[in-house]
Structures are given as C-alpha cells and as structure tokens.
Amino acid sequence: VSNVVPESCLLIVVGLLVGGLIKGVGEKPPILRSEIFFLFLLPPIILDAGYFLPLRQFTENLGTILIFAVVGTLWNAFFLGGLMYAVCQIGGSGLNHIGLLANLLFGSIISAVDPVAVLAVFEEIHINELLHILVFGESLLNDAVTVVLYHLFEEFANFEQVTIIDIILGFLSFFVVSLGGVFVGVIYGLIAAFTSRFTSHIRVIEPLFVFLYSYMAYLSAELFHLSGIMAIIASGVVMRPYVEANISHKSHTTIKYFLKMWSSVSETLIFIFLGVSTVAGQHYWNWTFVISTLLFCLIARVLGVLVLTWFINKFRMVKLTPKDQFIIAYGGLRGAIAFSLCYLLDYQHFDMRDMFLTAIITVIFFTVFVQGMTIRPLVDLLAVKKKTETKRSINEEIHTQFLDHLLTGIEDICGHYGHHHWKDKLNRFNENYVRKCLIVEERSKEPQLIAFYHKMEMKQAIEMVESGGLGKIPSAVSTVSIQNINPTTSSERIIPALSKDKEEEIRKILRNNLQKTRQRLRSYNRHTLVADPYEEAWNQMLLRRQKARQMKREVKNYLTVPDHKLDSPTMSRARIGSDPLAYEPKPDSENLPIITIDPASPQSPESVDLANEVPKGCSGLPPSPEEDEEGLVMRAKEPSSPGTDDVFTPGTSDSPSSQRMLRCLSDPGPRPEPEEGEPFIPKGQ
C-alpha cells in the first residue's frame, strides 16, 4: 500500500481509526496540544533537516529560496486573507462578523508550506536535488514570516486602532525575528563546537552536546518570540563541520541514527495525532468558508509560483522549466504547524476558532491525501528528472572543488564579487582563524590521511594480536608487511571488509587531501597590485615607437611609387595576351639582364632591389644618348662574399650620393597615378 499511498496519509488514517475507537468506547480522545507539538515533536524533525542539510545546493539557490519563502508567503497570506474577507462580507449572516484582521490572521496561518509534510512526501518520490531543496528550503525559511504575521495580527486584534507606526514596527519585527533566530542559532552552534574540543576523554556524552545545544537554541529563540526553526537550523549547520572533526566515529554514527529515529518517531506521532484530533476536536462546518479557503489556497499558490518564477528566471543561469514550476506549485503541502498555530488562538478574541480549525484540517487532508498521492504519478507522467542514486566519484568531487577555485579566480580578475568570491573569503577566514579555535590542535595540524592510516593499522594490529595468530611479530610492522613476510600462515590474503561508514570516512579524507590548491603567490586582487616603477618609461618608449612607425608609413605613402597590384594567374595571362609588346625586352638592351615573368606566378615586388635601380640623370653624370633611349636600367645585384654581413657591412648604397639617388628615385613628381588597366612598364616609343 505504501507504494501508492504516502506514509503520512496512512498514519492519518491510523489516527482516525484510533480516535474513532477511543470515542466509540466512551472515552475522550487526546488532542494534539500546541505546547506538546512546538516544544517536543517539532524540534527533532527540524534538527534532523538542519544538521544534514545539503549545504552546497542550499547556498547556491538561497536567493530563489528566500524569494519563495518571504515574498511568496506574504503574497499567499494577504491574497488569501483579502479574498476570504470579501467572501465573509458576501457570504451571509454566519460570516459577517469576521473582520479583516481575523481573516488576515487565518491567511497567515494557512499560507505557510509545512516542512513535516514536504519531507514526508518528497522523501518518497525521490525528486531531483534542485526541486527538493527549493520546496523544502522554502518550508524551512518561511517560518520567520509565519511567526511574525501570526503574532502581529494577534496583537493587532487586541488594539482599538492600528496606526502607521504599528505597521512600520511590524515590518521591522520581521528582520528582528528572522535575523535574531539565526544569531541565536550561530551562537549556540559555536558553543557546541568549542565544547566538543574537550570531550576526548568522555566519548560517551559527545552526542548529548549536539542535542542539548540545538534544543537550547530552539528554546532560547522561542522564549523571545524569535524564529525557533531558523535558530535550530543555524545551530545545526554551524556546529556540524567542527563537531564531526572533534568527535569519534562511533559518536558520529550515534548522532546520525538517533536523529533519524527521533525525527521519524516525531513525524509518526504528529500525523497520528492529526487524525485523532480530527475525531476528538470541536468542529463548525461552513460550506462557503471551507470551499473558498481550499480554492483560494490553490489559486494563490499557482499565481505566486508563476509570477515569482518569471521574475527569478531573469537572474538564474539554470532556468526553472514549466515542469519544475508545476512541481513547486503542486508541492506546497500544509501540515501540523498550521493546525497547532490555529489551536493556540484564544476563544475570547477569536470566537470563530472552531470554523478556522475545520477549514485548516480540510486543507491539510486535501494537500496530504490528494496532492500527496497524485504527485508521484504526475512526476512519472511529466518525466521530471529524479535524484541519481549513484554516489559521485572522488574524481568528480575534486574537479568540482577545482572549478570552484577557478571561478573564484576569474571573478577576482574581473572585479565581480559573486558568491564564489565570498565563499572563498569565508573558507579562508574559517581555515585561518575559526578552525584553530574550535578543533583540537592535533587534528587540525596532522594530515587526516596519515592519522586515519595509523588508526586503521593500530586497529588491525590489535585484532590480530587478540586472535593469537601473530603474537610474536613486532607491532610496528604493518599488516601488509606481515603478509609478505610470512605468506604460508594463511591460505588466502586477509582483506578487511569496510563498512559503509568507514568507506564514507575514507572518501571524505581523500577528497579533502587530494585537492590542495597550491598558493605560489600571496592573495591579491586588482585593487592592491603594486605599481611598476618602470611602467611609465615603457609606455613612453612604446608611444615614441608607434609615432615613428606612423610617420614612416605616411612618408612612404606620399613619396613612393604605388606598388603594382598583384593579379591572379588568369588575369596575368589575359593581360600579356592582350598587350604582349609591353612585356617584350627592348632590342638595343643586350647587355642588360632580362627579367623573366611567369604568368602563373607573378613577380613579387619584394624581389626587386630598388637600391640597384639607377635612373637616368640621378647618377651625377650627364646622360648619354644610349641611356636616354634605354630609360630605367635594372642591374643585377652582386652576390655578397661568404664572410660579409649584408646588414652591418657598408656597401655602395650607403654613401651620401646613393642616399640622394634613392630620394630622387622615390619622388615621382607631378605625374598622375597609373590607371587600373595600364601596364606597369610603359610601352616603348
């Protein structure tokens, strides 16, 4: 049956049967009193959730969770309260006396998602981590909003007139209640971590400190009307890393299984008592009020999720799909917190308490039975991604830490202070200061891997000595060495079987020790870099070089003959075919070297040596008639001797007359530039 019906539904049915049986024999069934619920049944469930909270997913989605928990709960409370007030004004004589404040109080009670119901249902359908942490985180953090609104409207109901100052103070009380609860939890978490430093000689009572300080945090917060749920979550999250580093492995196992058992017992009692209280309590059924409450709860939840998700998706890298939105809206279950808060109302000021209780029980039964039973088939029908049961390898976990470090560096270089940057700052502060104060010195300094190896080796040695097999061998020799020295003592190698807890501890130690980011340089950011004293000189030098290159380029553009545009081989063949005389050598230039042009590969202009081109009239001698007929003479460059350097050995072109000749050659005068179709070498006369 539990494969189809959630366990919470079965427990409520058991409670209904037990309550009916007690009432049938003439006895008065017990009712779930609010003091018992809030002081004894609720804290174990919240402590179990907070102590084993998946911190990485929670912090990465904290913004989305806070928007759903704060804005979503406020929207549900005021939307539901306003509409129910309108229904009461229209609904007839039985509802006219219920005022606006009473309806707003009812809306604040029924609007909050219940963590007990969410845990009971979502643990069974194995939804993926993102959706689970969004709905469950919302149910945990909306407690502050519920507590503030509940006490606020309860106080306002006693006032004759509510002023603007009262409303402003009520708004500020939200921050006091939420942040005050977190502060109380952090203080008790640090005290618990500090206490666990000195429990090495009394391992038996180590788990007791975890339960004691967490419960004291809850009671201290409730004493001052702060958020007890926020306090117990904060204490569990803060104390866990330091306490687990100090306590023994047996104490860790005790804490884990005792918390699971304690929360399971509380959850069972809560749902059974809900069923019993339904039979035993006084009810006032009003069809209009109950049906309107149920309908408006669903409408407010759907509208709130759609609007908030549209806004949240503008800032999220991983968008929430329509399927995710449906599961979030459908997973807003109500539970025993709403019932207990309503049960706390005073009859003198709220004479309609029985009608409120009846409507709340109806909403709880609808969400737990209808939504809780249908959410699993809907998840399968929509093919929503489920939680992967396989454990991540150490390789994946190390690379995840490496990518976190890489993204922190990228954020630092860009000057963008994202959550990676602040997480890295918090980790550095924790490593440098907090861990040294809260963790035993031997454990904080000695490498965990070596300490764990020594512990396991000692344990194996003790077991082997107790078995009497190898009593004469010195204890300093490891078990592997023992098997290598004396292999004939046993027919097969002894491979110790590791329990799941031991294997998990090995994985944790390997994960923490294999990924150690090497810090070659001290920490810096772009605002604290030391200025280079030679930076200005280098900049000036670079600017001078750039100006010199720019001037050289401009002079070259103005004083040189424009280079002939290289053509493709096809165009070169076409040009030679159309005007072959332009490329033929002159008949009276036998003594000149002939430049052969291959049409398939045009002559590159870099291979022409301009220094050896001697034009007429620029050599300092009067032009001869032969030169006048020849025009431009191109002389072959003499090959350099093997021992000379072309760059540093002065040649004939380095003389002042050669420099003047080059300037004369580079000045074309007022001639117009050649057109596109003209040949580069002018046609002979």
From TrEMBL:
The record's annotation in Gene3D superfamilies points to:
6.10.140.1330, 6.10.250.1040, 6.10.250.2020
Q: Which residues are in the Sodium/hydrogen exchanger regulatory region domain?
A: 476-562
A GO biological process held by the record: regulation of intracellular pH
Its primary localisation, in coarse terms, equals membrane
Protein family per UniProt: Belongs to the monovalent cation:proton antiporter 1 (CPA1) transporter (TC 2.A.36) family.
Q: Could you tell me which PANTHER family the record lists for this protein?
A: SODIUM/HYDROGEN EXCHANGER, SODIUM_HYDROGEN EXCHANGER 1
Which NCBIfam families does its entry note? b_cpa1
Identification of the protein by name: Sodium/hydrogen exchanger
Say which species the protein is native to.
Answer: Anseranas semipalmata
